[in-house]
Write a structure and sequence with these properties.
The strands form three sheets. Strands 7-6-5-8-9 form a five-stranded mixed β-sheet. It has a two-stranded antiparallel ribbon with strand order 1-2. The protein is α/β, with parallel strands linked by helices. The protein has eight helices and nine strands. Helix 2 runs antiparallel to helix 3. It folds into two domains: about 120 residues, no CATH class; about 130 residues, Glutaredoxin (3-Layer(aba) Sandwich), CATH 3.40.30.10.
């Protein structure tokens, strides 16, 4: 009987301490949102997310409660529930197995001994600073050279090269797209209407895809579009890089890039038509 009391007493004390200490540290020194489940505790090499602590609590808390109840039953201060010994014993051993697994597989022993714990607790609870570097700061060579947006070529559906310089001196509506791109396809009807309204008013259009000519030709025929489409057999120059499609750029007759937009839009509204008219000087 004495050994049984000692066993359950140890389980109750240890499980109670673990729950109080870890949840206390999570409240005081944890960071992140409780509501969204992103709260976590990081102390030196120790990292405990709140969801993992919650799962561990589902094992440790019943072991604590049943161990206390078992102790009270041994002392004659609890109801004679015949299933209590088995339940409390099972939860106690389950908690011990969990503790053993954590100690063996999830405890950074070498880090624990090398860590300056005074420094760790001094910084505990403060937001972690992100270590920054300058690897992505790619400054241009000086002195700066003017950018020639027309120094590349596209190809028509028959494979003939079309220098972008052929659009120089005109207002240019340049659009990067693809047949598989649903946002591209969504804006196509409005683009066709814009093309019909502005093609004879000094505005040049170029719709550039990186797909095969047969794919683009079949799509245009099936949908009934008459847009001037071209193929980019090579990746456009870096200064023409886009982060997604559809991507639209508008160039003034003097070659300046005056507008760029990534994403689908309604292009046939008076707002766009008036802007193109201002660039061309044709109402």
């Amino acid at each position: 009987m004495g050994g049984t009391k000692a066993f359950y007493g140890a389980i109750a004390i240890l499980s109670g301490l673990v729950l109080v200490i870890y949840w206390g540290m999570m409240v005081v020194w944890g960071s992140g949102s409780w509501l969204h489940g992103t709260r976590s505790l990081r102390l030196g090499p120790i990292y405990v997310p709140v969801l993992l602590l919650g799962l561990a609590t589902l094992v440790v808390l019943p072991a604590f409660v049943l161990s206390v109840c078992r102790l009270m039953q041994i002392r004659g201060r609890f109801l004679r529930w015949t299933g209590l010994p088995g339940a409390s014993c099972a939860m106690a051993w389950q908690a011990l197995c969990l503790a053993a697994l954590v100690l063996v597989f999830d405890t950074p022993w070498s880090g624990l001994f090398r860590t300056d714990w005074a420094e760790v607790f001094r910084k505990a609870g403060k937001p972690a600073m992100i270590e920054l570097d300058d690897d992505n700061l790619n400054y241009p060579a000086l002195p700066l050279q003017p950018v020639d947006y027309y120094a590349w070529s596209v190809y028509d559906l028959d494979g003939r090269e079309v220098p972008m310089a052929s659009f120089r001196g005109k207002t240019l509506f340049l659009n990067f797209w693809a047949t598989w791109c649903m946002p591209c396809r969504s804006e196509m009807p409005s683009v066709q209407r814009l093309y019909d309204a502005a093609k004879d008013k000094g505005v040049a259009f170029a719709f550039v895809s990186r797909e095969e000519a047969d794919t683009v030709r079949a799509f245009m025929k099936a949908e009934g579009y008459t847009l001037p489409v071209y193929l980019a057999k090579e990746r456009p120059p870096a200064f023409m890089a886009v982060t997604g499609i559809p991507a639209t750029m508008i160039f003034a007759p003097d070659g300046q890039l005056v507008f760029r937009h990534t994403g689908a839009a309604a292009w046939d509204t008076p707002k766009t038509i008036a802007f193109l008219g201002q660039l061309t000087g044709v109402p």
